[in-house]
């Protein structure tokens, strides 16, 4: 079991350093350089894997050398001592080569896992840095494909480097040994390998192009599948399941066609890998037989030439396969680079101290102001405009928004998000207990209060173990209205100074919505709350209503004042009431 235990290579030092190690080393942002960077981070492991692979595969052609001695010095001369010597040497060399192959494979597996783990660290760190910006800048399909496919392909590309080096050394060793046997045989091998390289180059370029097209299709269809799964209940509710199924089927057919296009150059590579050694073997044997007949070679040398060329079968076959894996790894590294190159929000040049409690939030671009302690309803015919205003106030978009006298962009992110919470109606619900999803770390009393404010007590009571019930990702076993109330309860349980709610009751009935409006207003009394809504229940209960048109606040006042003075507002609210 000790043989199977992995050595403790320092994987985390350049990526997840503690304070004593300084800043993490940033990787290259181009595919080939990233692949080389990942392969070279643990130099000791890389060198050991390359050396052992070179010895293992480079020593394969040495075995026919012992066979030559056994035939010429043992069998032809009827010298049993010489035969035993050469045969014993061949057996020992065989055992040594087999042991080196096992050791090389063991080191290569460690090297592969090292690169895989480092790639995972890079992707995870980048996703963590993007945070809330991730969904705005990278599709779900791309993120899933990086984790499910690209990391694995990069690891196999690194895994292929040591066999590739060993195969190249093996080819050189065969050429040198054949040159020592016969110049004509050596030239045959080198010319044959050169011709194969000329033929393989264009095939590899075409394979890379088609692999990139195939990978794009994989990302697209993964994203579509994720969207369908997350919205399946809604699709069924509006009768859109068949339409999206047909669309997914069309994408699947396009992916299949892209896969067929990848198969063509791959088949040519496999044919070259299988056919080239056989052709070279036939040519070498024909030349060697003519030289034996003319007396230029001994029978033992002809047997050795056959053995040397036969030893090409494995290296050439592996070399073609490894090249294919390296091309796949390069395409995967390109996708990882796209993720790593995703622009992040600029860090503030100077972290400013936060304002005093109860400070106003103000967005100059729209003119919206949320005062401390008020319940503000923000009404607009375009809810996305209000969502952008909330994102600016919450620091999710670069803007001139201010929290009191302090620019939002200059505040510490953790402090800002603790004090100002933007809660979307479709925010993610993570797997775990219901209590953990709402915020059990803040205490059960606060959770119970939040559940009551969100009118979600019936949701808890309907579950088999109440707050201790385990839910899956996005709580898909619950209805849309139940999930929306749980999201609202989670936002209330966080108890921020300013809570910005986007359509918090769009999926519940009017009776439930009325209870939520009254309870939330009572629970959040003394704290700032803004609700993006056109529901008359919220508008009538709000301390103040801001009417937004074209991304700008065009009027403020109570619901009754705006309904009496502004026809556009009155028309908007009348449609909601109808």
Instruction: Please state the structural category.
Output: alpha/beta
Strand order of the largest sheet: 6-9-10-3-11-12
Q: What portion of residues belong to β-strands?
A: 5-15%
- CATH class label of the largest domain: Mainly Alpha
- What characteristic shape results from the CA principal axes? elongated
| Main sheet attributes: strand count, strand direction, barrel closure | 6 strands, mixed
CATH topology of the largest domain: ABC transporter transmembrane region fold
Binned, the helix content reads 55-70%
Uncertain parts: 1-23
Distance between the termini: 74 Å
Report on the structure:
Helix content is 65%, strand content 8%. It is α/β, with parallel strands linked by helices. It has two domains: 17-341, ABC transporter type 1, transmembrane domain (ABC transporter transmembrane region fold, Up-down Bundle); 361-574, Rossmann fold (3-Layer(aba) Sandwich), CATH 3.40.50. The relative contact order is 0.08.
